[in-house]
Sequence to fold (332 residues):
Amino acid sequence: MQSNPGKPRVFSGIQPSGGLHLGNYLGAIRNWVRDQDKYDNIFCIVDLHTITVPQDPAALRENTLSLAAIYLASGIKKEQAMFVQSHIPAHPELAWILECFIPMGWLERMTQFKEKSGRERERSSAGLFAYPALMAADILLYDTRYVPVGEDQRQHIELTRDIAQRINQRFGDVFTLPEPMIQAAGARIMGLDDPEKKMSKSLAGDTPGHAIFLLDPPDVVRKKFARAQTDAEPAVRFPAGAGVRNLLEIYRTITDKAWPAVEQEFTGKPYSVLKSAVSDAVIEALTPIQQRYREIRADDAALMRQLRGTADRLTPIADTTLQRVQHAVGLR
Ligand code: ATP
Ligand code: LTN
Fold:
């Protein structure tokens, strides 16, 4: 089943919680695509994580297929292992075992839980609280070495290492320790409407100007960048304020340019010049993705067959790890 057997195992996942945005692309998918030949990859669509907050069933089904199509349209090769988390029961089974070894205090410190539960802490689901155990299970089931993600996921991968070490210390070498793979560029893209907040799918639902979606048509991309928050300066100066810096970060990541070149290109230029350059660069990157996306979505049945087939082929790998853990803790 492995795409590049013998190479280090990479595992990553994204939630089918809505349309993907530029932060997901620059912080995660683009790096998976660029480095896919260097690793033995598994790319997951983490639908069990998505139901930790309320979802409309039809929308969840649609977002799951849409995310699979986005992976492929972005350049993940067809032969890579791409599957839906809920198709492999070993994920929630291992998560349960891990939950029984993770102290509550570790979960209480997770910033994502604090942010997502907010003032509704008492009413948020137990699943949202236990979310990091399921993510640790995803990673540990496949003896993963590297987890390519954006900066916001670092704390989850640290918890994954901590729980793996704790179990290894107590029961012997059960798990491989994973490491985060976080790039210097594009690891934390901020909201266009508010550069103090991370661009996120959840916030994008409430504020149309917050995020650029990968499927936004060119005129919408231009409009959103035109309205992006900057500051009161008349032109680009360095050090730039948060809003301008975010636009420059998007530009330098998507064009693969170094900071000094970008500084030189925009110093003293009016914001309209920067906004139009970043719009052009983003539209150039998104247009072929959108084209391929439409082609792939023309045959949803084939896409579903691919996802099911991959899950069937990965199940024995996941089951082998699960059985090792079950044996180690005395369940078999
Ligand atoms: P949600 O709002 O539903 O939590 P999200 O937009 O934060 O969603 P995830 O599905 O949690 O997206 O993340 C998918 C991947 O994209 C992860 O690797 C994550 O680190 C990365 N990512 C998410 N937001 C950003 C961002 N603003 N900048 C860079 N990377 C990001
Ligand atoms: N928590 C991640 C999604 C996720 C993930 C994973 C990422 C679930 N399981 C395993 C990497 C590896 C998020 O919210 N982006």
User: Anything to note?
Assistant: Residues 14-15, 17, 23-24, 26-28, 149-150, 152-153, 187-189, 198-202 surround adenosine-5'-triphosphate (ligand 1) (CB under 6 Å). The chain is about 55% helix and 5% strand. The first helix runs from residue 22 to 35.
